[in-house]
Specification:
The protein is an alpha+beta fold and 696 residues long. The protein is built from 25 helices and 24 strands. It folds into five domains: 75 residues, Alpha-Beta Plaits; 178 residues, no CATH class; 84 residues, Calcium-transporting ATPase, cytoplasmic transduction domain A (Distorted Sandwich); 128 residues, HAD superfamily/HAD-like (Rossmann fold); 119 residues, Calcium-transporting ATPase, cytoplasmic domain N. A hairpin with a 4-residue loop joins strand 3 and strand 4. The longest helix has 35 residues. The two termini are 39 Å apart.
Length: 696
């Protein structure tokens, strides 16, 4: 590829691609190619100017060499990337808007007035017909008001006013549709399937491979708590599948041999072997878009209030028009009232404000599934944190392996990793990573693995039962014991670490000591949340009382609960809600799912368990918990903007009605100012709520 470097600073390049007009598909392909380079941190491609901005780390010469070697012919971006990028959408609506403006204003100079009169009269029939249909349904809503304003203008021969009203209404509709589709698309993309590794069934073994290696006809194995990576048919096993991302239905569906499963749904219970039918992600994206667009439950209460208020105000506007007409006997003053209504601005500006806030959250790495959850965050006064992987770092590390049985340290760690790699949890990842560092590779040497939520894992190796998990699970549930001669060693285990207990054939084999350090930003994050309106911060963990007390003291939470089960977390959330509190729950594991579902707004950590992300209403990146503060500030600012919009709409339109009735301004001017203010408020609502440079 030929290109020119237009601007350069350390770690950032702006280039111009030397070619003719860049298509949207080409821009998407180049952007996808750049983003998948490991040393590229961010990339933006602008198809209109054929420019690209690349942020990178490492050697400059590497990025230059990659750019030189790039070609559209040799690079094949995934189908779902091209189909769902949103670039074509923006281009289409941008052209529609420009065309509408040119036709409206250009037509005044080119088209003779008699022809324009006929054309506007024909256009007016569309709005009048919509109003008549609304009346036929015995509803007096916004379309009736629009039809009356346009119809009266045409009847009076004031085609300029009618044309201006129709033009501004059309621009408003176009902006609303554009913003809605863009916001929905951004949201759907963030919810779309992003699976990197898949368990592939080869003979009697499961092999972990990259998702790109899977082809139709392969058999993929999905363990409990994981996302189903592809559309397919169950060929073995049975389980309960959460299909909320596709259907909106929260209750899991039973799947067994012969049943169809869909990419992106989550296996809540059991284990499935799936015959892969399709590997493309386009279908899932389209299904998510449909679900979001059809889902009224995702609308905030304020959005719904605005829509209903807009329609309820129409009869009063019509009544006011009639009263002014009877009192003044002046057509111009009467028409001034009809040309100004509160409903149009209310119905347009409020949804745009919410959708724009969702879009802005997405730009900051925060996925929000609906406006109601931003409203819940703004109103929340209680926040509940899981500890492990949430308040503590997402990547705990194994510090020591203490052997108690016949297996040496390395062999004990090998067995533990063999079991833990099947299930998504930060502690499990720590064990698997530790085994890799010691180069303890293994083939599957166990029977079917059973995961006991919030407790541990059990399986069989050479007909011996193997369990790994919490102290409660290993010693109380499984009745395992410690050799008498090892009792002193057991009591001397370092207290500063979290412990995973491994037992074989009823006897403790090893204890894996895991360091789970507190996130550096945790205490500051809690302090800032309280400054933003959170009155009660709670931590709940399945860890020991000693560990929980230490973390709680350092973080600065108001309350903490140790050695709790998943149902205990959910019960606490429900009790808080019953007492009149608005509750946010934040977690990352399978065991957090009941509480995430129960909360007014459930927030999952992005690198946590797939089921947690699927059930959660909001997902944040795992890099910095202060994104919660960003989310809270964004939600608070959205509520302030909506309230400002209410005041602006009422104030501006009341003033215009007063000026019209007083004879200060003509109906044409009144309509122009009303519609212009509506567009202005809507455009203002599309602006970012937080400064671009704000660093939390």
């Amino acid at each position: 590829m030929k290109f020119i470097i237009k601007h350069e600073i350390r770690g950032r390049l702006r280039i111009h691609v030397v070619q003719g007009r860049m298509t949207c598909a080409q821009a998407d392909t180049l952007c996808w190619f750049l983003e998948k380079q490991e040393y590229v941190t961010d990339a933006k491609v602008y198809e209109r100017t054929a420019d690209a901005v690349i942020c990178y780390k490492g050697d400059r010469e590497e990025i230059i060499a990659v750019l030189k070697g790039f070609s559209y012919e040799k690079t094949e971006a995934p189908e779902n990337v091209l189909a769902s990028s949103g670039r074509e959408l923006n281009s289409t609506y941008r052209e529609k808007l420009i065309t509408k403006v040119i036709l409206h204003y250009g037509g005044k100079f080119i088209v003779p007035y008699p022809i324009r009169k006929v054309w506007m009269a024909l256009k007016a029939m569309r709005y009048i017909w919509i109003g008549i249909r609304c009346l036929a349904k015995r509803k007096i809503e916004v379309p009736v008001l629009d039809a009356a304003a346009i119809g009266v203008s045409v009847f009076r021969g004031d085609f300029n006013t009618a044309g201006s009203v129709m033009f501004l209404l059309g621009v408003g509709e176009l902006l609303e549709e554009w913003t809605h589709k863009k916001s929905v698309g951004d949201l759907a993309r963030s919810m779309s399937l992003n699976v990197k590794k898949v368990w592939l069934k080869k003979g009697n073994q499961e092999v972990l491979v990259h998702a790109s290696q899977i082809q139709p006809g392969d058999v993929a194995v999905v363990h409990m708590g994981n996302v189903i990576p592809f559309d397919g048919e169950v060929c073995a096993g049975e389980g309960m599948v959460n299909q909320a991302s596709l259907t909106g239905e929260s209750l899991p569906v039973q799947k067994e041999k012969g049943k169809t499963v869909y990419a992106g749904t989550v296996l809540e219970e059991g284990e499935l072997e799936i015959l892969v039918k399709a590997v493309s992600g386009c279908t899932r994206f389209e299904k998510i878009v449909t679900m979001i667009e059809d889902s009224e439950k995702l609308k905030s209460a304020l959005e719904s209030k605005a829509e209903h208020l807009a329609d309820r105000l129409v009869p009063y506007t019509l009544a006011g028009t009639g009263i002014v007409g009877l009192v003044t006997r002046n057509a111009a003053k009467t028409l001034s009232v009809l040309m100004v209504d509160f409903s149009c601005a209310l119905k347009l500006a409020m949804p745009i404000a919410v959708l724009s806030a969702i879009r802005e959250a997405g730009q900051r790495g925060i996925t929000v599934k609906g406006g109601k959850y931003l409203e819940a965050v703004a109103e929340a006064d209680t926040i509940v944190f899981d500890k492990t992987g949430t308040l503590t770092k997402a990547k705990p590390t194994v510090k020591d392996v203490v052997a108690f049985g016949d297996y040496p340290e390395d062999e004990a760690l090998r067995i533990a990793a063999c079991l833990e790699e099947h299930f998504p949890h930060s502690m499990a990842k720590a064990v698997v990573d530790a085994a890799k560092k010691r180069k303890l590779y293994h083939e599957e040497m166990h029977s079917k693995v059973e995961y006991v939520v919030a407790h541990g894992i059990s399986s069989y190796i050479e007909e011996k039962k193997v369990v790994i998990g919490s102290s409660h699970f290993v010693f109380e549930d499984e009745k395992c014991s410690v050799r008498p001669e090892k009792q002193e060693l057991f009591e001397a285990l370092p207290s500063e670490y979290s412990h995973l207990y491994l037992a074989v054939d009823g006897e403790l084999t090893a204890v894996i000591c895991i360091e789970d350090p507190l996130r550096e930003e945790a205490a500051d994050m809690v302090r800032q949340l309280k400054a933003e309106g959170i009155s009660k911060v709670v931590m709940m963990t399945g860890d020991s009382e000693r560990t929980a007390a230490s973390i709680a003291r350092r973080v600065g939470v108001d309350e903490y609960y140790a050695e709790v089960l998943p149902e205990d977390k959910a019960r606490f959330v429900e009790n808080e809600k019953a007492s009149g509190k608005k509750v946010i729950m934040i977690g990352d594991g399978i065991n957090d799912s009941p509480a995430l579902s129960a909360a007014d707004a459930g927030i999952a950590i992005s690198d946590g368990a797939e089921i947690a992300r699927e059930i959660a209403d909001i997902t944040i990146a795992a890099d910095d918990l202060r994104e919660l503060v960003t989310l809270k500030r964004l939600s608070n600012e959205l509520m302030k903007r909506i309230n400002r919009n209410y005041r602006s709409i009422v104030g501006i339109n009341s003033g215009l009605i007063g000026l019209g009735v007083g004879g200060v301004i003509r109906p044409t001017t009144s309509a122009l100012l009303h519609n212009t203010s509506t567009i202005a408020i809507s455009l203002k609502s599309m602006q970012n709520l937080l400064p671009e440079t704000e660093q939390i």
